[in-house]
């Protein structure tokens, strides 16, 4: 287990990872990141990549990178696996003054990720609809988003974990006024909000599943095979 004693009060944002369901006010954050000198490189996926590409226009070729291009791994069908990759989590969890971590980054040609902007599939809103069955609710359980949020928030020593679009404006102002840096005070405040977000999300899922009956499980899957194809050795 690592115990850190040396960190930076202010961290310059060189690399950001953005993956959003709610793309509200995305332009505020993106313009702040590419307005830095030098501008930040943004890693993204799916619909968020397309939205950022639209915001940046010709600048996208310089500042925007598909996560799959960076990791060398295509997305799993249905987008089930996009960001769960060693290079991504090495970039999120690496510590600035740990020589072994720096050697790992060099070994796999990864970069430290300094800011993560993520919001999650709207599980609670979907599950609350009377017409939604268990399978439709299950499909809206976000996996990669909470993992990225937790990793970034754990490493608030270096990384800003942004889960609320309301924080884009203040964060953009801090980046502009500080020459592209995010303070320890801001990173810690964002980490507090991030862990509260993932805790609430997990409570919502646990509460929903606790309220489901086995009859609902059976009725949600019209074809249940008697065999064990999925569990064969």
- Please estimate the helix content: 40-55%
Annotated CATH architecture:
3-Layer(aba) Sandwich
DSSP helical segment count: 12
Beta strand count:
7
CATH superfamily: Methylglyoxal synthase-like domain
Question: How would you write the strand order of the largest sheet?
Answer: 4-3-2-5-6
- H/E topology pattern: EEHEHHEHHHEHHHEHEHH
Q: Kindly report the CATH topology.
A: Rossmann fold
Based on secondary structure, the structural category is alpha/beta
Average pLDDT reading: 92
Indicate the overall shape. Answer: globular
CATH class: Alpha Beta
Number of domains: 1
Low-confidence stretches: none
Radius of gyration: 19 Å
Largest sheet, in brief, is: 5 strands, parallel
Our estimate of the beta-strand percent is: 5-15%
Task: Tell me the distance between the termini.
Answer: 34 Å
Task: Summarize the model shown.
Helix content is 48%, strand content 11%. The protein has 233 residues and is α/β, with parallel strands linked by helices. The chain has one domain: Rossmann fold, CATH 3.40.50.
Write out key terms for the chains shown:
alpha/beta; five-stranded parallel β-sheet; two-stranded antiparallel sheet; 48% helix; globular
Detailed description of the structure:
The chain is an alpha/beta fold and 233 residues long. It has a single domain (10-220), classed as Methylglyoxal synthase-like domain (Rossmann fold, 3-Layer(aba) Sandwich), CATH 3.40.50.1380. It has helices at 26-34, 46-56, 60-63, 67-71, 86-93, 99-107, 123-127, 134-139, 144-154, 168-177, 184-210, 214-220; strands at 10-12, 15-19, 41-44, 64-66, 115-118, 160-162, 181-183. The model has no long low-confidence stretch (mean pLDDT 92).
């Amino acid at each position: 287990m690592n115990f850190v004693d040396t960190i930076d009060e202010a961290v310059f944002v060189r690399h950001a990872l953005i993956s959003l369901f709610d793309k509200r006010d995305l332009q505020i954050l993106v313009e702040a990141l590419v307005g830095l000198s030098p501008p930040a490189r943004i890693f993204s996926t799916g619909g968020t990549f397309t939205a950022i590409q639209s915001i940046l226009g010709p600048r996208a070729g310089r500042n925007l990178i598909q996560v799959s291009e960076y990791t060398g791994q295509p997305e799993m069908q249905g987008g089930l696996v996009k960001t769960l990759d060693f290079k991504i989590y090495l970039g999120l969890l690496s510590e600035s003054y740990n020589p072994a971590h720096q050697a790992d980054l060099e070994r796999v040609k990864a970069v430290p990720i300094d800011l993560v902007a993520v919001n999650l599939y709207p599980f609670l809103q979907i599950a609350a609809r009377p017409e939604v069955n268990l399978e439709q609710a299950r499909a809206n359980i976000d996996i990669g988003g909470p993992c990225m949020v937790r990793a970034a928030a754990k490493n608030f020593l270096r990384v800003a974990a942004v889960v609320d679009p309301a924080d884009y404006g203040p964060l953009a102002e801090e980046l502009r006024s500080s020459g592209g840096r995010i303070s320890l005070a801001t990173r810690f405040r964002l980490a507090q909000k991030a862990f509260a977000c993932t805790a609430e999300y997990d409570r919502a899922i646990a509460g929903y599943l606790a309220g489901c009956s086995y009859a609902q499980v059976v009725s949600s899957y019209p074809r249940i095979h008697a065999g064990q194809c999925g569990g064969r050795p």
